[in-house]
């Protein structure tokens, strides 16, 4: 792999940057792999990367029906934070935060992780109580999170309207300073390049259509658009399409898939210093380094695989943004889009073995899994390599829906991230 | 935004008048004390989450307030049939064929 450095940059300037070469190969599938990952989103690619890097499992294929990073990974609003309620979640999301910190160096790829702070607004007495409960729980669990008065919130984010006259006045905010944003595409590309370099085959335009099981029930391989591929281990990391893929192996899932939307404005000079989220009035916003305001809306209320949401959902979000940040009122929105998010009943993900031997699943990240990408891939690789969960993902089984041991993050993640 | 026909009010109205009630035809276990953990999990949490022709419940909250069932293609979001709660599930294969799927 050509390592990126200042020297390389200078060297390539002499040939007008025409000779950088490909970042990863475009191989045809081999007849057999030790592990096949279904889905080349951030989570699938990170899984392949850590399988190769930490477990020496390099005979791995990542199969992707479209282009790598073209699912929710390339469609999300890139918010990173870890202030979830329960200790199980704190461990999982904090594991990711720890990895975000050195990720650009680790991958030799600038993922533009920017810990600019994530502020979650409270607009009602109930919001205030919930936020403070979270802050206390977080501090006990060693997760950074602090309470701001409306005035302190405005100081942290000057564009914020803290007037008492608006429909849902700001009554305070929870701030996680280590939260922030990262460049979504770069995360997928960085992991892809790193995994490819260690021998992982990333095969794009390769829809998986079936999972073959032997007489003993164990996985024997996958049917794909590019033919049958033999393997004893399959990791399903297919986000909104997980139910479908698991159906191929006869495993029922506690998931529902909904369109979730986001939109960006025309680019402007730096005007917004942090990330602001409001679950109550369904809006979250940050500014990309390119200058666009990146705005996230809610989900549609019904199951859909259309990758577009209803326009009334985005309108509702824009109403909220205009009230909270009146000086954005005249900005034009450039693009909006949708992704299909897979939501669990307790709003926590599933990183688990399954009733089928050799079949593993990483899903249920719903509206908020981008932030967990490095940690998720790291512990899921462990689960596949060792055929047993890492202690961090041990509670996130499918079985919890049978035992009743749910990890209820609905209050933290019901709407946003 | 969907346009949904309420079979009780007998009018077509915008989606915002309705609330989606999730997958239709999920029956509550008849005898709770004889229901196993697997069966409870199936009833409470497991969902078909169909990509294609799905049956779902809707409630006309800003109208008559009543529940009814809808057959919808979850890829195109096109509604193929609306029927009252007590009516049996229609022949989905026939509906799929009609819709050209
Ligand atoms: C609008 C929006 C905003 C969001 N905002 C945030 C946010 O601010 N912060 C946050 O933390 N999270 C956010 N999320 C959630 C986040 O994007 C996801 O949880 C995360 O990216 C999931 O990553 P993934 O790799 O599991 O899924 P994906 O990136 O969707 O990857 C799954 C891949 O599997 C492929 N696939 C599916 N079926 C098959 C098949 N049969 N054969 C082959 N390939 C298949 C798909 O093509 C896809 O590329 C948001 C999501 C959306 C849609
Ligand atoms: Zn009605």
Question: What do these coordinates show?
Answer:
The complex is a heterodimer of chains A (417) and B (101). Chain A is α/β, with parallel strands linked by helices and 417 residues long. Chain A has two domains: 26-78 and 184-253 and 346-413, FAD/NAD(P)-binding domain (3-Layer(bba) Sandwich), CATH 3.50.50; 114-181 and 256-343, D-Amino Acid Oxidase, subunit A, domain 2 (D-Amino Acid Oxidase, Chain A, domain 2, 2-Layer Sandwich), CATH 3.30.9. In chain A, 29% of the residues lie in helices and 23% in strands. Chain A has helices spanning 6-13, 42-55, 87-107, 125-140, 150-156, 184-197, 242-247, 311-324, 373-386, 400-403, 410-413, and strands spanning 32-33, 35-38, 60-63, 79-80, 118-122, 146-148, 172-176, 180-181, 201-203, 208-213, 219-224, 227-231, 234-236, 256-265, 275-278, 283-287, 293-299, 333-343, 350-353, 359-363. In chain A, the strands form four sheets. Chain A has an eight-stranded mixed sheet. In chain A, strands 9-3-2-13-20-19 form a six-stranded mixed sheet. In chain A, strands 1-12-11-10 form a four-stranded mixed sheet, with no helix packed on it. In chain A, helix 2 (42-55) packs parallel to helix 6 (184-197), helix 2 (42-55) crosses helix 9 (373-386) and helix 3 (87-107) packs across helix 9 (373-386). The longest helix of chain A is centred in the first third of the chain and has 21 residues, at 87-107. In chain B, the strands form two sheets. A four-stranded antiparallel sheet of chain B has the order 3-4-5-6. Chain B has a two-stranded antiparallel sheet with strand order 1-2. Chain B is globular. Chain B is built from two helices and six strands. The model of chain B has no long low-confidence stretch (mean pLDDT 96). Chain B has 101 residues and is of the alpha+beta class. Chain B has one domain (3-28, 46-98): Folate-binding superfamily (Folate-binding fold), CATH 3.30.2270.10. The complex binds flavin-adenine dinucleotide (FAD) and zinc ion. Residues 6, 8-9, 60, 63-64, 66 of chain B line the site of zinc ion (ZN).
